[in-house]
Every structure is written in C-alpha cells, then in structure tokens.
Amino acid sequence: MSDDRLIVALDVPNALEGLALAEKIGDAVDFYKIGLGMLTGGGLALANELKTEHGKKIFLDMKLFDIGATVENAVRGLAQFDLDFLTVHGDPHVVRAAQEGKGGKDMKILAVTILTSLDRADLDASCYKAGDVQDLVEERAAKALTAGADGVIASPREAAMIRALPEAEGKLIVTPGVRPAGAAKGDQKRIATPAQAIADGSDHIVVGRPIWTAADPRKAALDILAEMASPQAKQPNS
Ligand code: C5P
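Above: inputs. Below: predicted complex with cytidine-5'-monophosphate.
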C-alpha cells in the first residue's frame, strides 16, 4: 500500500491514456482523480477498471451544480459505482441534495469552496460578493460543512484556516493547487508545496500536471511522496 494522501489527477484525454499512465505509475500511487475532461472519454469505465482490476481508490471530480432534485438524481446514479470521493459545488442546497442522493453509500461528498485557479479579479468578473478570497472560502466551507458535506476542496493556502473551523472537526480537507518547488504553476494561482499543504492540515493533496507531464511520472510521484513524509510536512505554516 502506498500513501493514499497523494491523489493523482488523471487529466489525460481518454480512458486508454489514463490506464496507461496509472500502469506506468504502478504501486507508487493508490488514489486517482478522474475529472470532467475524461467524462466523454470513458472516465466511468476507467474508474471501474482502476477500482476492480487494480485495487485503486477513486475520486470522481464532477463538481456537480444544479437544482436540488437534479443533483440528487445524478448522485443516486453515481452512487451505484464504487467511488470513494465525489465533488459537488459547496452551495448548501447542492450539498444537501447530494447527501440525499448518496443514500447509505460510503462515498464522501466533497464541497468545492472556490476554485484554486481563481483570484479576486476572477470573483469580481463572476459577481461574487466583495471581500477577501480567504474569507469567502472560510464562509463557504463552514456553510457546506454545516449542510452535511463530508469534506471540502480548497487551496492549500486555506487548509490551516479551514482546519481551525469547529465545523471541520472530523471532516476531510482535500487540496489541489499543489506544486513542488520549481514546478510550473500553469493556471493555478493559490498554490503551496506538498509539504506545506500536509503541514497545514490537508488530508489529501491532488496533483496533476507536475506528475502526468513529467518524463518519468512514477519518479515524480515518488518525489512528492518523499516530500510529504519529510520533517517539513510536520511543521504547521513552515
Ligand atoms: O494539474 P494540476 O495539479 O493543476 O491539477 C489539479 C486538478 O485538481 C485538476 O484536475 C483540477 O480540475 C482539480 N481541481 C482544482 N481546483 C479545485 C478543484 C479541483 O484545481 N478547486
């Protein structure tokens, strides 16, 4: 068993490439994220194969958002697959509907607070209310957790603040926007290193491009795992 705190985002175009990448990484990684980009490329079939044939854990990153009845139906359908994590947007009506839809299934509903690729200027463009991004993340996280989310998705820069919320006790914090020192940021804006993210209270980190664009994805994953196990990962706000 590898350290399942590392979740690798399989953001490649289709299931065949996703499977090839997971096979290349082999036993170094136990947890994979399948996102919207792969939905029309066999993403659910890949989820099934990775789970049943390879024993991997699966995070289906659908970021569902709709009226409650539609979210509930979508989650009821998805609950028939053997999924470990599923994302919805953190609006309380969406979170409540998702919990209804999942029934008794042990599939964690994770609420998206504010996408880690967005900054204040982006929020202005989307008509979000005024205020610091961190404060809005804190407010959305608290409301989503109160509505019944099993955890939240947030930037690693916000992990410590969310971990301190009374609403977050016993809940998961999952953080994308993680970059080893020196790695390209891409479109991510609110980033931190793997060690910082873990030190600040992330239960799981999600890493995509630094692994799947690497010449040797297995080595890239092993380097990140080594950093997560290092002493820096044990010092909050290092
Ligand atoms: O390549 P990179 O490491 O930036 O990939 C991050 C992954 O996490 C992507 O699949 C992206 O869709 C996802 N994600 C994110 N921000 C969120 C939720 C999910 O970047 N708030």
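Residues 162 and 179 are 20 Å apart (CA to CA).
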